[in-house]
Specification:
The chain is α+β, with helices and mostly antiparallel strands and about 120 residues long. It has helices spanning about 35-55, 85-90, 105-115, and strands at about 1-10, 15-20, 25-30, 75-85. The chain has one domain: 2-Layer Sandwich (Double Stranded RNA Binding Domain). Helix content is about 35%, strand content about 25%. It is elongated, with a radius of gyration of 19 Å.
């Protein structure tokens, strides 16, 4: 599944912040514009994947014409982020895949102790 969402890019101190208004709380950034685009796509893909794994639908995207920078956030511009959800889910999804492996005993002991303290 391919999705496209409008994103707002803000510049600050020669870096970029990325906000995806259709995905509440989805904010990322990068030191350069190409990095900010990649990080924005990654953050948005992770946000959408979480929804899909919870059995929810991906939120509909707003029209780019209806998306505007917030003047209080500073100077910004709107562009589109393209998400390849199939590729992202294959790489980062929580679907379990059975694998047999051998790990050092100390690592197993560490993991078992760590699990005891989780709420």
């Amino acid at each position: 599944m391919k999705l496209v969402y409008p994103a707002i890019f803000y510049t600050a101190d020669e870096a970029f912040a990325v906000v995806v208004p259709d995905l509440p709380g989805c904010v990322s950034g990068g030191a350069t514009l190409p990095e900010a685009i990649a990080m924005g796509e990654d953050a948005a893909s992770g946000w959408v994947l979480g929804e899909l794994e919870d059995g929810k639908a991906a939120p509909p995207a707003s029209r780019i014409e209806d998306t505007h920078p917030d003047p209080e956030m500073g100077e910004g511009f709107v562009s589109l982020l393209s998400l390849d959800m199939d590729a992202y889910a294959a790489k980062y999804g929580s679907k379990s895949i059975r694998k047999n492996l051998t790990i050092p005993a100390w690592l197993n002991t560490f993991a078992e102790k760590k699990r005891q303290y989780e709420p």
